[in-house]
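debug: dumping io for the single-chain case to check the tokenizer round-trip. Nothing else runs in this session.
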Amino acid sequence: EPRVSALSMSQVWHRGIIIESVQLRTKPFTIPRIIFARLSAELYVRRFWYLILPWPLMAVGLILLSRDRNIIFLALLVGLWPLTLPLRAFFMTSKTARLFESPTYVTMDEENLYFHPQAGQGMKVARGRINSVVELHGYLAIIVGLVKFAFIPVQAFDSPKQVAKLKSAPGS
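debug: decoded output
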């Protein structure tokens, strides 16, 4: 089997196939699980704030207007629910986050975005399934579906031109 380092920059070895038309290739990077979970939680809140915000507001209203201790206790639970998002994000993203714990690099061709970890199995994302690519705290967040995210540090790119090329990937 050829090794990735023996291939040219325009070729990539992916699951037994040499991909010839690589348009983009990043430097290897790692993302700690806690950072991946924090970014996921923040992205989740940014995308769905209108579903999260009414619960604490309702809780404040119930606490101020109710005299029943049971309702006040329930309102406190409902009001504190958004604070559980980071912990839930940690557990929900643990499988995907493991991919980025070992040095990983990303390649992109006309049809797919490939994540190549040094250890374990990689991940392939069809470019047509990418909803959007946004920058978040020095990472590019690749949003696939409602709550499926992948992150690439901006530092992993050789030039701003590569970042712009990836940002143009959604729906292409």
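debug: round-trip ok. The longest strand covers residues 130-136.
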